[in-house]
Specification:
Elements lengths: L1 H33 E5 L13 E6 L4 E3 L6 E4 L8 E6 L2 E12 L4 E5 L2 E4 L2 E3 L18 E5 L4 E5 L9 H4 L2 E2 L3 E13 L4 E2 L10
Antiparallel strand pairs: 1-2, 2-13, 3-4, 5-6, 5-13, 6-11, 7-8, 7-10, 8-9, 11-12, 13-14
Length: 204
């Protein structure tokens, strides 16, 4: 009896174990090379993304990186102006930030009285906001600065409530996780309910 009954039981445990290993390997592959979940903790990108938005980051947008060294195994075109990227905060690589690319390598960036100039041209975009200011005066006038090779100048859409390249400099390409893609969940903590209208919304 014990022999006949123990064999199916062992087989069942083995199947569960193999399924678990496959699931873990698949999850590691997806998170490392394809998509990563990211939560919006602050209002620096209002109104493009909201506090409480949960979004997926496309890690393949700019290439495939070695998960251990951060070097590119397969390199594609880098971020473009207007891309919303998630990256390691230069002051603490364990913290991830989300901002919009406003300057490419070689671009000359200047901020005058809150207005952005790229290569001497005034840049005005509909997505720029000035909500709940917390950086009044400190970041209103910056530069001109030339973006170094292999680095990017990033800014929050909510310009008066964003610590970004105006405060701590440019972002190295190696530190970029990927391009923000879609919102898969959104929670309004003040109202205590989900924002169903934002589900599936493309981040741009």
């Amino acid at each position: 009896m014990s022999k006949r009954h123990s064999e199916p039981q062992k087989s069942l445990f083995r199947e569960y174990g193999e399924a678990l290993i496959i699931a873990l390997v698949l999850a590691f592959f997806i998170r490392t090379f394809l998509f990563q979940a990211f939560t919006i903790p602050s209002g620096s990108m209002l109104e493009t993304v909201q506090i409480g938005d949960y979004l997926l980051v496309n890690k393949f947008s700019y290439g495939v990186k070695n998960p251990f060294t951060g070097n590119y195994l397969i390199e594609r075109d880098g971020p473009q102006i207007g891309d919303i990227i998630v990256f390691e905060y230069p002051g603490d690589p364990s913290v991830d930030y989300i901002k919009r690319v406003e300057g490419l390598p070689g671009d000359v960036i200047e901020v005058r009285d809150k207005e952005l100039y790229r290569n001497g041209e005034l840049i005005r975009e509909d997505y720029v906001q000035h909500i709940h200011p917390t950086t009044i005066g400190r970041l209103d006038n910056i530069g001109p600065v030339t973006v170094p090779e292999g680095e990017y100048f990033v800014m929050g859409d909510n310009r008066d409530n964003s610590e970004d390249s105006r405060a701590w400099g440019t972002v190295k390409r190696k530190a970029i996780h990927g391009k923000a893609w879609r919102i898969y969940w959104s929670w309004d903590s003040e109202a205590g309910r989900p924002r169903l209208s934002r589900l599936g919304h493309k981040v741009e």
